[in-house]
Amino acid sequence: MRHLIPLGDPVTNENDKQQQLDRYRVEQGDRLTTDQGVRVEDTDNSLAVGDRGPTLLEDFHFREKVMRFDHERIPERVVHARGSGAYGFFQVHESLEEYTCADFLTDPSLRTPVFVRFSTVAGSRGSADTVRDVRGFATKFYTREGNYDLVGNNIPVFFIQDAVKFPDFVHAVKPEPHNEIPQAQSAHDTFWDFVQLQPETMHMVMWLMSDRALPRSFRMMQGFGVHTFRFVNAEGRGTFVKFHWKPVLGTHSLVWDEVLRIQGNDPDFNRRDLWEAIERGDHPEYELGVQLVPESEEHSFDFDLLDPTKIIPEEDVPVRPIGRLTLDRNPDNFFAETEQIAFCTGNVVPGIDFTNDPLLQGRNFSYLDTQLLRLGGPNFMQIPINRPVAPVHNDQRDGFHQDAIHQSRTSYTKNSISEGCPMSGVLSGRMEGVFRHYTERVEGEKIRRRSPSFEDHYSQAALFWNSMSDWEKRHITEAFLFELGHVERRYIKENVVGHLAHVDGDLAAEVARGLGLPEPQAVRTDHGKASPALSQANAPRESIATRKIAILVADDTDADQVAAVRRELQARGAVCETLASHEGTVGPLDVDRRLGAAASVLYDAVLLAAGDELTGDGHAVHFVREAFKHGKAIGALGAGRALLEAAALPDRQGVVGPDDEGFTQRFADAVAVHRHYDREVAGFSA
Ligand code: HDE
């Protein structure tokens, strides 16, 4: 394959972006100066008249310092305001040239640098991470042919079918306008009012009420491009494509009660988890998969491929793994990198194109438009994090914050003065590497009307429900009860239940009962179909890599035994922390955290190695009972038997005792299961 751009190192370019950023990175100097580089005498006292006199306007250092402070804030994103980002690289497994000419998808030796930003949607920048919400999964690929942005979510469908409704939808889910309550929650009247009036939301609402909306970690959630996009190969042939990110660590969720408690214990739970994993060298990895549909099969589904409220079940079109994303570097500065990164769905490279999905078409306007205000003008792509590694040459000029000093005497095309440069492909006659929009025949009347092929709002909501395990169905039902329980208007609840009756009669009846509403008539035409790939219960749960295990120790702990088990767990990739009633050491063991300053919700499993000293400690007993309530693996070692007994747990699913043979293996197996959900049936409450 030929490239217009000189490529340098032919094997890898994963460092290209970092080398570019190095030019902008600034070290902390040792002398304080003004923005003009003038050394500052004293920054603790402003210039004033005498000891007790007024401050002088002439104090340029004071004015500059306060002026800069006054203007530190930029508007937060109108949605996805709270996010966390990381650098990494993407490498395709084998050439996809049969389907796309995108350089980064055809050269397996290439490591394309990326920046990924994960986010919640509804909350403000300072809101808690663990809320019931969709998560953004936006990836900027700095390819040799320009930036490609895959701006996805962790749920494969969306609430609405047409972008023109996005402002209404967002206004409905955001805090209510009169009192700005509630923060980062969908459990309020305006959101459910929108839902009851817009049945196209039903499929997405089912996902939102499921545990998918409570990811354990950004490292353990899927990502989806949502829309059907188009691959285009060198011959100009198009293939429909849906993008999937699958985390190598598996897809895991928190439980609802845990979510609520983490909000107080560590509002930065997901952000911290991502940061710490990368600092530790546990680099998050995701497989990129594609579902490919030949154009000839566009109309062979019982839904419209252009409808973003629909998935293509994996059983019908398998997800083909095509490459791997690895995140291996934290940003140096949150504002400069994570806050200023600007994703635009319109950023595509040759070989990847749009379809006529009306949601996608609208997004292509919105993302570019939103950055103008957020980042202060049309040159936002010159901010270091947004710069492509591919060279940029054009006649676009001036505007706020123009950073480049264009030396050319011309800024128009065609020109003769600069020998016609820079020249488009057509003008130069060199078409290699140009972006060519896919040639598609379109005709029709100019109308404002939803396509009849977008009309079915319930079949895939039912497909999702049918595919759930018992515990997943239980969680979805409870989520509806919680959310609608926070709605004041009875008719809104009734109408939502009315929609649920189209999805599943039992679900609708149970929600109605819980809310004290009349049971609706079941109206679903039961298609009886399920897609096992949709259930988290079917995801592999074998590894304990990066699971956080709390080890409770005291003076009666057998330190050698604990050290040996800890070593084995760490060898399997677990992250262990030792907790005791005080910081410092317990015998030869280093204490990582004081038990009183920790909470079970911050861990995936608990290993009890302390006995009598903690049996009378209410916090320690609560710690164990709460971990049990949230379905976590519990192991008791040596003296830990006494603490286990003190906790008086009602059953032993996922509980491994000191006398159990092959303790470490059994405990690791119990941790790998992630959550022992069947405990919930016993109705245990801590
Ligand atoms: Fe977005 N969305 N969105 N969205 N979206 C934004 O762009 C918008 C939609 C998504 O980490 C905004 O830079 C419209 C679907 C992510 O910086 C804004 C519509 C999907 C992010 C915007 C949608 C997404 C955004 C706000 C309906 C999944 C965060 C700030 C047509 C496929 C990106 C910004 C980041 C952010 C508009 C629907 C994902 C206002 C109009 C569907 C991950 O432009």
From TrEMBL:
Catalytic activities: 2 H2O2 = O2 + 2 H2O
GO cellular component: cytosol
Gene3D superfamilies named among the record's database cross-references: 1.20.1370.20, 3.40.50.880, Catalase core domain (2.40.180.10)
Family designation: Belongs to the catalase family. HPII subfamily.
UniProt-listed PROSITE patterns: CATALASE_1 (PS00437), CATALASE_2 (PS00438), CATALASE_3 (PS51402)
Keyword Repeat carried by entry: no
Protein name: Catalase
Residues binding heme: 77, 117, 166, 363, 367, 374
Entry EC no(s): 1.11.1.6
Domain Catalase core: 33-421
Domain of life of the native organism: Bacteria
Essential cofactor(s): heme
Functional note: Decomposes hydrogen peroxide into water and oxygen; serves to protect cells from the toxic effects of hydrogen peroxide.
Catalytic-site annotation from UniProt: 80, 153
Keywords: Heme, Hydrogen peroxide, Iron, Metal-binding, Oxidoreductase, Peroxidase
Pfam family, one: Catalase-rel
PANTHER family xrefs: CATALASE, CATALASE-B
GO terms of molecular function: catalase activity; heme binding; metal ion binding
GO biological process, one term: response to oxidative stress
Keyword RNA-binding: no
